[in-house]
Give the backbone structure.
Amino acid sequence: MPPRAILLTGGCGFIGSHLVDALLEAGHRVVVVDDLSTGCRENLNPQAGFFPMDVASPALSRLFARERPELVVHLAAQVSVTRSLRRPALDAHTNLLGTLNLLECCRRAALRGHPVRRVVFLSSAAVYGEPAYLPIDESHLRRPHSPYGLHKRVAEEYLSLYRQRYGLDSCTLICANVYGPRQRPSAGVDGAVVPSLLARLGRGRPGVIYGDGEQTRDFVYVEDVARACVLALERGSGGATLNLGTGRETSINRLHSLLAGLAGVRAAPLRRPARPADIRRSCLNGRRAAELLGWEPRVGLEEGLARTWEWWQAAGDRGR
Ligand SMILES: NC(=O)c1ccc[n+]([C@@H]2O[C@H](COP(=O)([O-])OP(=O)(O)OC[C@H]3O[C@@H](n4cnc5c(N)ncnc54)[C@H](O)[C@@H]3O)[C@@H](O)[C@H]2O)c1
């Protein structure tokens, strides 16, 4: 792909900052919109342009007029399932109205003669709800259990509508559990599991496991997800919706044991009651992404966790 002007929302976050690095490395001009609600400035490569802004703000339209992006990647989101249950309107503000605002900016840019060639959107396995079968493929029924999953799903539908009505090309990537360097534990109870475990194991204490620990997730390394986004910008045309997962289930017990091994913690994990909202098993079938984008995960779990642990140690307090 020749160098392009790319606007990326959520570029100061965990996944976004890795994608910014990959896009800059490939020679693109990158402009980031982020309100720093969960992301941080130090994640962001200084070669990227930065606009501290709410993605739902009317000012986004002026930014589009000035920067004239040819491609857009939309990652800015309220990412906590628990927070979405407590404050659904807050989730809707970013995940629904923010997405709609962004799509409207793309539509108006085309009217001004500066069309956006494609929007790549990161959705979540939360759109599927409780799986009826595993690994989940893209034709699986979508019955989200939370406002987060519901708003992601409606955002996907909006992308589809804008493609049909206004010819705005898009590609949706539905991610499994992403992990890797720069992922920080959140203050909420449903923070991502890898940094939540590391926050304790890194201090020599056993991690906390909810329920019997035999619940499973599909862990995909952040650089693999960033690479999928780059491929989707290049080739993900026609409104494709693609799962990004390894197709492998890993139990939380096994995850704890791998991380405890890296951290040298021998004590057994602490057990807490199961959380009712937790899905029992999950993993995504990534065959369609392999066919359409030529994408396959390259970094296996043990390798990815070792890299994450290395970063965690080097980051010190910045990682907490
Ligand atoms: N991490 C995962 O396992 C995972 C799985 C599936 C999907 N996703 C999706 O990937 C995307 C990135 O998630 P992440 O894990 O990097 O989380 P993150 O919290 O690190 O990144 C989200 C970024 O969006 C920014 N943001 C939030 N609200 C905003 C707003 N109103 N205006 C502008 N910026 C705003 C935050 O400051 C942050 O930098 C999200 O869309 C998320 O739903 C993540």
The pocket of nicotinamide-adenine-dinucleotide is lined by residues 9-10, 12-16, 33-39, 54-56, 75-79, 94, 98, 122, 124, 175, 177-178, 192 (CB under 6 Å). The chain has two domains: 5-179+219-248+285-299, 193-216+249-282+303-319.
